[in-house]
Backbone:
């Protein structure tokens, strides 16, 4: 690697969230840091992209090897715009977070934090999403920062396989017991809506719900690790093809003559 | 299966798009149909969910076994709300589309059409995303409808493996040559932004770009199939864990002492 590593930092809680600044602070000795993040909260934005309105961004700060931008787009927009038009070279690492709230199990499909990591991975950048299972503003990010920093050092040194990104979740407890490499738990949200009323007494629906581990004894699943007091680290793939089902699907297509 | 199958139809182009009505029309002989779709375009919304504002929905039409609702949310919101609070029972099938525009390769990560199919799959419903590689309003949906219908019949009969959904893309050509079971091509968008100016002469960035097949000779990849005049059918997984990298990641974590 020539010169200092370039590290792109983004999130889905917005540029003013505490988590992203805690993350940048713990990475500052590792290279040149650029924060390019949404101008406000974009939780649950998944891999959403903005195409019907144009994006703008602005420079907020530049000092001591840290440059901070904010952007009107989603987390994925931020990664795309930063990589395509703002950074002079491809980052050596993308870190997304620290998210205020856990992104274990199926949350990988809803999370803007992971949306950004997926986009980084698509762009060919070793990418890591970092989340703390706590929504409160005064959360303790110490364990998150320690693990995130060591993971960053390791990934800067060894890289990641093409098409694979990492999903790190850290439990919000005083004594995190360690970190476990995990698979994605088979989760499901239950009781997903709270019915309420607007000022005109019409029904409105607020998203809520709690994450349920459908197969709690699935070996090495991430919800289980977190429940047991460990941070979970799940390697995830961009290629979502179910290769194990392809041959059977070919049979099904043939047997049922699904053709033109 | 008891009684008529219940089929939930949604999309990301909105309840007024032609594609969703073409899809519903071709499925009408298969069971009880409920369209529950966004009230306007939600292209590129991926798996986004709405949590900061409440959702509302309204009934637009009910006749001849077809019920049509529109909702203020994203495609995923539509699926969640329909399944949680509107439909009396779990649908036997979810069809999302017909999308005006292709969703091959990495588009699975950006597409609201697929976001809805992923959500259906998470909810335990056999789910299929259907897309036509054409954005124009006067597209020909014939091949899409024929294949979508036959696929629906087959999936209603045989089901799909737990945690697997289908991504069908149909090329916009006069003579589609058939359908191929494919894997997800390794795609990348290039030239993703067009720089322009707003009325105040400030720079703004419009998302654009074209999809490039990085490994065109990857066997059975979906972009290749479409380029060759075939519809592509990719089985996709909810579980994105890179199982093949887990042991190596454990070694990496150990060697680099990434722990607390």
Residues:
């Amino acid at each position: 690697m020539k010169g200092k590593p370039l590290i792109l930092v983004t999130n889905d809680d917005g540029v003013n969230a505490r988590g992203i600044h805690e993350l940048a602070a713990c990475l500052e000795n590792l290279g040149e840091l650029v924060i390019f993040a949404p101008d406000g909260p974009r939780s649950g934005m998944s891999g959403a992209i903005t195409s019907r309105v144009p994006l703008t961004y602005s420079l907020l700060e530049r000092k001591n090897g840290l440059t901070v931008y904010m952007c009107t787009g989603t987390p994925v927009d931020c990664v795309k715009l930063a990589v395509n038009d703002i950074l002079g070279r491809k980052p050596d690492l993308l870190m997304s977070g620290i998210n205020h709230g856990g992104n274990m199990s199926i949350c990988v499909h809803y999370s803007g934090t992971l949306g950004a990591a997926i986009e980084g991975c698509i762009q060919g950048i070793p990418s890591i999403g970092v989340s703390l299972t706590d929504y409160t503003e005064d959360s303790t990010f110490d364990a998150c920062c320690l693990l995130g920093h060591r993971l960053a050092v390791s990934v800067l040194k060894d890289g990641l396989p093409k098409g694979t990104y990492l999903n790190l979740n850290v439990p919000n407890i005083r004594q995190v017991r360690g970190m476990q490499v995990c698979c994605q738990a088979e989760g499901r949200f239950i009781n997903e809506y709270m019915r309420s009323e607007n000022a005109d007494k019409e029904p409105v629906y607020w998203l809520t719900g709690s994450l349920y581990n459908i197969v709690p004894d699935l070996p090495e699943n991430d919800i289980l690790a977190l429940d047991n007091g460990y941070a979970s680290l799940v390697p995830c793939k961009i290629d979502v093809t179910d290769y194990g089902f392809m041959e059977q699907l070919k049979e099904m297509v043939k047997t049922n003559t699904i053709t033109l």
Notes: The mean pLDDT of chain B is 96. The helical segments of chain B are 18-27, 75-86, 112-122, 142-158, 222-227, 243-255. The two ends of chain B are 52 Å apart (CA to CA).
